[in-house]
Design a protein that fits this description.
globular; three-stranded parallel beta sheet; five-stranded mixed beta sheet
């Protein structure tokens, strides 16, 4: 088995043929920042390339949220509108890469799956959730782009 890539916002654990990819910023409800998206793409690409991995489990750390969507603190700041656009495109690329991984992705939903987190859940092949999990697109109620 090859060495996993270095990751800062995602945990990657392998147990036999099962790779578990965990969004690991529970104190912020596992938001999709540019670094989280980058780490997810790296981890899933590693899983795709690793012959010993047969299935990927995608989950969020903590018990409040699988993923609460975009990291709203990343909007604005020092990024130009073009950089923000490319950042949103990275999320679409992540969803396409999930579709092309060639191995089943099981979403283990442990709490809220909202906005981009709902999209992340929808990109999985199968979902298993706690009874209290919520799914939704609340950004449409506040006019977020």
């Amino acid at each position: 088995m090859s060495a996993a890539p270095p990751l800062s916002d995602v945990l990657l654990e392998v147990d036999g043929a099962i790779a578990t990819v965990t969004l690991n910023r529970p104190e912020q409800r596992n938001p999709l920042s540019s670094s989280m998206i980058r780490d997810l793409r790296l981890a899933l690409d590693w899983c795709k390339q690793e012959a010993a991995v047969s299935v990927v489990v995608l989950t969020g750390a903590g018990d409040r949220a699988f993923c609460a969507g975009a990291d709203l603190s990343s909007f604005g700041g020092e990024q130009s509108p073009l950089e923000l656009h490319h950042g949103r495109h990275a999320l679409a690329e992540l969803f396409m890469e999930m579709n092309e991984i060639g191995k089943p992705i099981v979403g283990r939903i442990n709490g809220h799956a909202l906005a981009g987190g709902f999209g992340l859940a929808c990109a999985c092949d199968l979902l298993v959730s706690v009874e209290s999990a919520t799914f939704g697109t609340p950004e449409i109620n506040v006019g977020c782009p």
